[in-house]
Amino acid sequence: MSDSTTSKAELTALQAALAAEHAAVYGYGVVGGRVGADRRAEAKAAWDAHRARRDGLARSVRDLGGEPVAASAAYALPFTVADSASAVRLAADLEQRVAGVYSDLVRSATGERRASAAGALREAAVRAVRWSGESVAFPGLAERAGDAAGRAGTAGRTAATGSASPSA
Hints:
Layout: H1 3-34, H2 40-63, H3 84-108, H4 111-132, H5 148-162
């Protein structure tokens, strides 16, 4: 693969990760508004982490000569978030989706960007476990397993990274 092809694949994966981080920042705004007081600090810490990752990804996109994808005004949520339990479920879902795009970025990136993406994947996987209480063998790769949940995760990740219709 040529350097130009590698750079293009890396830029595409960076843009997808940036779009997922925009969606996660939005989603954690919803989580923070519905989650119980006992988990509010955890939601705020995750929101801050996603904002920092988003800002770093935007810089990386610019470094490769791209124009960072803009955040949508709103995002379609995968389900209605009406209470603390559904807010916790949304937080776990957000982290699983973010892990998926970071696994793609790990595959596409090289050097320091690959190491950073691997760190982001690990952080998302750990937060997903904290929110859901469950873990998977290979975080971010569920959509490649061929099961129904994996296929739904891929479709949901597309909606989370590109849809602009709210449904809270």
